[in-house]
């Protein structure tokens, strides 16, 4: 029947499409329908993200997710080629750098030890070593930095499209309409009702709706501590080019910057009210970012802002990490959201592992049970030592 499937996925962005792709690639032979309300992906979070990829985490589970995903992204262009045409994701492994003031160095030393123990090739740099990476860097108030040369940044939209095209090729059906609510019968998921009133049925529903996911879940009486949180990004150019291409660099103030082609993008974790809001303010760059940039790199003093945009985090208010797995009181209802800005980085590993959990009932490649729904009730939060 046209309105029946084996699996329904809500959200056809990078997470939903990675899960669909991995399910079909790994041998699932049932019918998968993906509902995506934004057919042009105009407001999807992935294309609006900064595209950073890092392994510099302080929890083992996040390190494992990034380490696995790094190997996938390194080979993504060739591995996801369709009919000989490669999926170019423009992965620039120029590194990821956290700058530190004196008081931050003991923490960074602890982070380094933990990362190295878990197979992450990070290194702690002294202040003068930083000039080998960014010759123009003002290190007057900087004591050193935590650096991972394997990390960097990529084109998130191309990664998302790579998963979408490959999922479609394997038989996933994309329907570009809005899901209004979940259909349930006591403790069993039944399907979804669309905004136009049409109903679709499946014994498994996976909620990957990103910044809109918790709104849908709450509507069904299945709450999770996730809110949509706007994040602004700005693109700018400068008069005098830098000597070298930048790693994605995080200033101690929370402002980050990196190259975008021959230009630059920057942003910061501003204090802002949660909500679905896509406005961006030039004044936020001038008042909060430009002074930091100009202080850190002299060439940035003459920055010319060219454009800006806002994307949404699906922000986990409890511990800022993904919520993955089956909802404990609703059989067949799986969630994969709350990434808080890490979705694109973790999409390959999450897709692979959720495919295993849905098909076999258990994780195989990585054990993602620390990110389970129940952790909030069980007071087993996954807290990063430093959140950016």
Structure, explained:
With 388 residues, the chain is α/β, with parallel strands linked by helices. It has two domains: 205 residues, FAD/NAD(P)-binding domain (3-Layer(bba) Sandwich), CATH 3.50.50.60; 145 residues, D-Amino Acid Oxidase, subunit A, domain 2 (D-Amino Acid Oxidase, Chain A, domain 2). Helices cover 26% and strands 25% of the residues. It has an eight-stranded mixed sheet, sandwiched between helices. It has a six-stranded mixed sheet with strand order 8-2-1-12-19-18, with helices on both faces. A hairpin with a 5-residue loop joins strand 14 and strand 15. Helix 1 runs parallel beside helix 6. The longest helix has 18 residues. The radius of gyration is 21 Å and the shape is globular. The N and C termini lie far apart (47 Å). The relative contact order is 0.19. The model has no long low-confidence stretch (mean pLDDT 97).
SSE inventory with pairings:
Blueprint: E1 7-10, H1 14-25, E2 32-35, E3 52-53, H2 60-74, H3 76-79, E4 96-100, H4 105-117, E5 122-126, H5 130-133, E6 144-148, E7 152-153, H6 156-169, E8 173-175, E9 179-185, E10 188-194, E11 199-201, E12 204-207, H7 213-219, E13 226-237, E14 248-250, E15 256-260, E16 263-267, H8 282-296, E17 304-316, E18 323-326, E19 333-337, H9 343-360
Parallel strand pairs: 1-2, 1-12, 2-8, 4-14, 12-19
Antiparallel strand pairs: 3-7, 4-6, 5-6, 9-10, 10-11, 13-16, 13-17, 14-15, 15-16, 18-19
Helix pairs in contact: 1-6, 1-9, 2-9
């Amino acid at each position: 029947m046209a309105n029946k499937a084996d699996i329904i996925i809500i959200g056809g962005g990078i997470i939903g499409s990675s899960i669909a792709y991995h399910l079909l690639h790994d041998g699932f032979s049932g019918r998968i329908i993906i509902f995506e309300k934004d057919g042009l992906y105009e407001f999807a979070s992935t294309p609006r993200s900064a595209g950073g990829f890092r392994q510099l985490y302080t929890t083992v589970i996040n390190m494992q997710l990034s380490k696995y995903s790094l190997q996938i992204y390194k080979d993504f262009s060739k591995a996801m080629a369709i009919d000989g045409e490669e999926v170019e994701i423009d992965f620039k492994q120029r590194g990821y750098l956290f700058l530190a003031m004196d008081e931050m160095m003991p923490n960074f030393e602890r982070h380094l030890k933990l990362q190295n123990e878990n197979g992450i090739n990070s290194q702690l740099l002294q202040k003068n070593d930083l000039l080998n990476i960014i010759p123009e860097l003002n290190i007057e108030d900087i004591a050193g930095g935590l650096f991972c040369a394997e990390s960097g940044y990529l084109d998130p939209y191309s990664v998302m499209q790579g998963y979408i095209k490959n999922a479609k090729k394997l038989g996933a059906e994309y329907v570009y309409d809005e899901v209004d609510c979940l259909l349930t019968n006591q403790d069993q998921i039944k399907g979804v009702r669309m905004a136009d009133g049409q109903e679709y049925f499946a014994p498994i529903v996976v909620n990957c709706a990103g910044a809109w996911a918790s709104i849908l879940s709450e509507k069904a009486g299945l709450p999770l501590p996730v809110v949509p949180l706007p994040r602004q990004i700005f693109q700018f150019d400068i008069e005098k080019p830098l000597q070298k291409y930048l790693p994605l660099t995080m200033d101690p103030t929370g402002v980050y910057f990196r190259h975008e082609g021959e230009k630059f993008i920057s942003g910061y974790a501003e204090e802002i009210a949660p909500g679905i809001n896509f406005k961006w303010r030039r004044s936020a760059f001038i008042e909060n970012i430009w002074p930091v940039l100009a202080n850190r790199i002299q060439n940035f003093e003459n920055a010319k802002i060219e454009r800006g945009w806002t994307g949404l985090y699906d922000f986990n208010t409890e511990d800022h990490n993904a919520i993955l797995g089956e909802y404990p009181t609703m059989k067949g209802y799986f969630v994969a959201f709350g990434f808080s800005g890490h979705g694109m980085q973790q999409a390959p590993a999450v897709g692979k592992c959720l495919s295993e959990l849905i098909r076999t009932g258990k994780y195989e490649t990585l054990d993602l049970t620390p990110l389970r729904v129940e952790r909030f009730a069980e007071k087993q939060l996954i807290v990063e030592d430093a959140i950016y």
